[in-house]
Design goal:
Layout: E1 36-42, H1 44-47, H2 55-66, E2 69-76, H3 80-93, E3 96-100, H4 111-118, E4 123-125, H5 127-135, H6 139-147, H7 150-157, E5 161-163, E6 174-177, E7 187-190, E8 194-197, H8 201-211, E9 225-231, H9 235-249, E10 255-260, E11 266-272, H10 275-289, E12 292-298
Parallel strand pairs: 1-2, 1-3, 3-8
Antiparallel strand pairs: 4-5, 6-7, 7-8, 9-11, 9-12, 10-11
Pfam families: FLAD1_M, MoCF_biosynth
Domain MoaB/Mog: 38-218
GO molecular function: FAD diphosphatase activity
Length: 308
Amino acid sequence: MSTQPQLNPSASVAKLSPTDPSNVPNPLGEGNYIKTAGCIIIGDEVLNGKTKDTNSNFFAQFCFDLGIELKRIEVIADDEEEIVEAARRMTSQYDFVVTSGGIGPTHDDITYASLGVAFNLPLKHDQETIRRMHELATPQRREELKNAPQAQREARERMALFPTNSGSDGQNKSEIIFVEGDKWVPVVRLGGKLCIFPGIPSLFQQLLLALTPYLPLPPASSKPFRHLIYTSKPESAIAPYLTELQARVKKEGIRIGSYPYLYSGVHVSLIGHDVERVRELGQEVVKEVDGKVVSEGKLGNEGEKAKV
């Protein structure tokens, strides 16, 4: 599966205005915000080991820092049925879903077409994307495209062939959001939930971060609080206590995690919304595992972890 080329970042390349975030309404409805997320990595080359996926890891960190609970990551083939099934299932379950990969100019780049099927939307060339392709290209690249065979120009314009609104059905809504002024690649959002990204890691990261102002993010007050405790004891030694603790506090909505470091101890994580209760339990854990607090705070906002 091919991936679209990155633009030349030369200073001679123009910069166009991104979409104004104030003109993009809350896709989940006024007063609602993203609580859960899913990630779909699309590409045979990831499944056969040719390409190493890093986009799902970046997305996981992105969600964690914003207080969004990432519920599922899937890697699937360049197969229409698989893409359609995964897209429909995840958007029915989660508030925010991203896809990565499969939006290049070749025959196996079928993400846009497959998602059109998933959302019952026809494909249509977006003229603004094509205009930006031209405007943001270097003079040399413009000349190459001008003299290129028709088949090559059509292949390039396949990357502007998007699922497009077919009517007033809100579930089938399609949005084209230009999040970066120096990138012609937009983020296409379908059904208010699913956002389509390229597979190239640098582009994926830049566009995802730039999409942030267009997302109905959780308010700071909704972010859980985390206590992180380090102990030099082996995980097997503290496992019975942590199992009992999780069973005891599960009804309080507090999650207990255990993350061992090879030959160098364990980090125990306590996450919940009741700050005082998490801190109280943290002190209990410190005593029981003979540990020390190395970080605490709202998710994505904790202080520097102590070196262990």
